[in-house]
Amino acid sequence: MSAADLPVHLRIPLGEGVRFGPGKAELLTRIRETGSVSAAAVAMGMSYRRAWSLVAEANKAFRAPLVELSRGGEGGGGARLTKEGEAVLASYRALESLLLTEGAAYIAAIRDRADMSGRK
Predict the structure, then answer these.
(1) What is the dotted CATH code of the domain comprising 3-113?
(2) Is 100 helix (H, G, I), strand (E, B) or coil?
(3) Which PANTHER family did the record assign (predicted)?
(4) Three-class SS of residue 20?
(5) Checking CA distances to 64, which of 20, 46, 91, 111 falls within 20 to 30 Å?
(6) Smallest Cα–Cα separation from 62: which of 98, 35, 91?
């Protein structure tokens, strides 16, 4: 299930207006899968510049970088998640799962009370 399919969007404030949420989690997942920030951006339909900006923001927001970058050259550059990146992503995914399982009844109760008709 992708972040877009989830009934809630979990965003964790990290300070100074920076949050860790579904976008950064998906980007880290795609970087892990592809070994490339550029390929991850393409897979998400995101601009290359935006992906690099999110990686830089995430790397700065944590005590240790989440993504390790290698410069291009003959074989091209690459990217991989660091141990810190793997740990943050695993914790985020576990919290998402917990929210969706343990919190499902609360999510349903809130939605049952919502006016979903689009009236203003």
Answers:
(1) 1.10.10.10
(2) helix
(3) DNA-BINDING TRANSCRIPTIONAL DUAL REGULATOR MODE, TRANSCRIPTIONAL REGULATOR MODE
(4) strand
(5) 46
(6) 91
